[in-house]
Fold this sequence. Notes:
single chain, alpha/beta, Aspartate Aminotransferase, domain 1, Aspartate Aminotransferase, domain 2, 2 domains, seven-stranded mixed sheet, 9 helices, 16 strands, globular, phosphoserine transaminase, PyrdxlP-dep_Trfase_major
Amino acid sequence: MATASLHSLLLKTQTTTNGYFFKNPITPPSQNISFPNKSLSITCATQVQTQSPTTPKSQSQDRIFNFAAGPATLPESVLKKAESELYIWRDSGMSVMEMSHRGKDFVSIIEKAESDLRLLLNISSDYHVLFLQGGATTQFAAIPLNLCKPNDSVDFVVTGSWGDKAFKEATKYCKPNVIWSGKSEKYTKIPSFEALEQDPNAKYLHICGNETIHGVEFKNYPVPLNKDGILIADMSSHFCSKPVDVSKFGLIYAGAQKNVGPSGVTIVIIRKDLVGNAQEITPVMLDYKIHADNKSLYNTPPCYGIYMCGLVFEDLLNQGGLEQMSVEKSVRSLMNVPFTLEKSELEAEFIKEASKEKMVQLKGHRSVGGMRASIYNAMPLAGVEKLVAFMKDFQSRHG
């Protein structure tokens, strides 16, 4: 089921006359660029349960619903296939975890993973697809080191904590400018692109496509003012959740542990003409040319993680591609849903009771508190239905 439907079920809202119980810190927008600064109550789209919610039949009885922001839940079919191939992969006589990363078996795995990802995102031959390590955070340094000289200017649109971290890291290797920040409004907005005061000489314009902590997502993308400049996006938390026109970007990067695999794999999609101009101080392991020339096999990559990503890509293709995961347009994130209780003293009890009902990782990010439900591609409808029913039941008992 499309993520939009899961999100709509969890965030179906109505105004109440006697205050709010569950509050979404950010409301769905009336326009495409900002949110009204008021809270709404969350109501349930399913009937109130008189007994504790039970695990729906579509989910294995011994599986919990994992709402973590990452590492996140994986498709059950993918996990079962990996389980069946864990001991011996096909006719290789060994596990993927035991293979030489340069042997024919693993080379076939990584080549198929790349081919399937290219199909999913319609990535042209003008781009390299790299499977790297170090998380998206390592790319905060790798990007300016590869694309800039020390005195080059770059522009940042900061819509949340991750964009801010990327900016701060870039200050070590180039001259970044924050041309817009949502920090003063607690990261609840996306700017009007026409109002951005870009540097006409900026080497690139950097955005974070979806901010997991505050739940703000770009649905459209700005265009660099510099005709030779490029758009760069951290897409870690909504990568492969919907179609994207890769040709609009010079570089896309994403940690795999949200939508496409386990932690340990970082995917970089970079236009080929941007590779080969790294600063002299660039460490070998951060040089895109080194990895491109060696087809992501310069050193031992996260082999099993890449294998798992490949299974997810295959599963997405079998479902009909990313069009089946596409979502409605709004600025509100459809991946991460933060919310609070009016009575904050009940939040610990809410998390405790939810855990007993096999719903875990609902505690909000440590920097903002509250609660957060992450509903990536692999979260089944049954999980969201159960959470909504539990919220309604909790409200009836504590409201």
